[in-house]
Amino acid sequence: MNNFIFKNPVKIYFGEGMIASLSKEIKPASKVLMTYGGGSIKRNGIYNQVMAALKECTVIEFPGIEANPDYDTLLRAIELGKKENIDFILAVGGGSIIDGTKFIAAGMNYEGDPWDFIIGKAKVPAAKPFGTVLTLPATGSEMNCGAVISRRALKEKLSFHNPEGFPCFSILDPTAIYSLPKRQIANGIIDTFIHTTEQYLTTAASPAVMDRFAEGVLLTLIEKGPGLISAEKPSYNDCADFMMSATMGLNGFLAMGVDEDWATHRIGHELTALHGLDHGVTLAIVWEGTMDVMRREKEAKLLQYASRIWNITEGTTDEIIDNAIARTEKFFNSLGVKTRLSDYGIGEETIEFIRKRFAERNWNLGENGTITPQKTEAILRSRL
Fold first, then answer.
1. Which residues form the domain of 129?
2. Does 306 score more than 90 pLDDT?
3. Which of 176, 190, 286, 337 could form a cystine bridge with 280, CB 3.0-4.6 A?
């Protein structure tokens, strides 16, 4: 077990009807900047619940934050927040809205170009206070201090972490899942699954207790995932298990004392930046290639994964690993997600572009820093 320091200050309100708790967390007469996306919150009733809870506040709305929130959009929100001298920011949406709001909250306290702290040119400033109402489980952003921001003009998608940028609170109502399109649910399941394996399928020295927690999340997703996709209206308990799995998948808990990978995410971000693919789709494409190419370094954990998650124990080492990778891909396919680059018209040109970009930036990925640009190329080539 590695040494670690763990702190997570986010207060969670979990359950049906908890949106009303906003009135307990945001002071009356506060000027609130409410960020959200394309307007689904107005169709599913969440908007009305939020506005009722904030009836004693002045609410300034900023709609239109995209999936994979764009830098230029977020700059407009920063300008609006500064102009209105807001007291608090409330993100109402999924991971993209929350990630974008983290950027807004930090950018409001920064006088230069906020892209500076995305690329490491400047320290991320302490964030303006903000909270979240989660509508789509996936990223765990509601309970962590990280965010991923796109800059479409530069074909970039980059992450940042802000130790002084956790949400003050997050409200998680599983009934929000009832109205979600199946595509978004599938993406959320896959995102949570890969978040977990990025912290689990690394070195054999991981703490046993953290391995078991991670395996619990994976088994829950495998058990609940197909029903969430097939049911016209999934059960409340299945929605609650999914929502809690997504939050626990990336709130720092599973990372305590373990080595982390994140190569699949880093490579997947390029596919989103270059082709606009859903984040969950990119992970479903790349993961199998990462496990295949890195099987020798990850051998012990892949064998453990095969045995504990898929009950695969027969065959040679490579046969067991091949089977575990295939079973995982079949699970992603069962959620309605295609898992090959060719399924999306992506070929050699993109692979070569990513290899060159990683080489120019000297990006070596993985828990041991051994996924070179050449291995990244091999991972993507295996997914054609």
1. 11-175
2. yes
3. 190
What are residue 197's DSSP bridge partners?
A: none
Residues 207 and 353 in one domain: yes
Task: Give dist(CA 116, CA 200) in Å, integer.
Answer: 32
The closest alpha carbon to 358, from 284, 277, 270, belongs to 270
| Percentage of the residues of the chain whose pLDDT score is greater than 90 | 98
Tell me the H-state helices in 136-278: 182-200, 208-230, 236-249, 263-275
Q: Which of 175, 203, 236 is the last residue of a domain?
A: 175
For residue 4, the SS3 value is: coil
Burial class (CB in 10 A: 0-12, 13-18, 19+), 64: middle
- Tokens encoding 133: 């109402």
Mean local confidence (pLDDT), 77-103: 97
Distance separating alpha carbons of residues 376 and 364, to the nearest angstrom:
9
From 146, 175, 204, give the residue that closes a domain.
175
Q: What is the pLDDT of residues 24-33, one digit of tens each?
A: 999 999 999 9
pLDDT in tens, 122-149: 999 999 999 999 999 999 999 999 999 9
Residues 160 and 186 in one domain: no
For residues 278 and 235, give the distance between their C-alpha atoms in angstroms, rounded to a whole number: 26
Whether residue 243 sits in one domain with residue 138: no
Distance CA 36, CA 230 (A): 28
Pair 95, 124 in one domain: yes
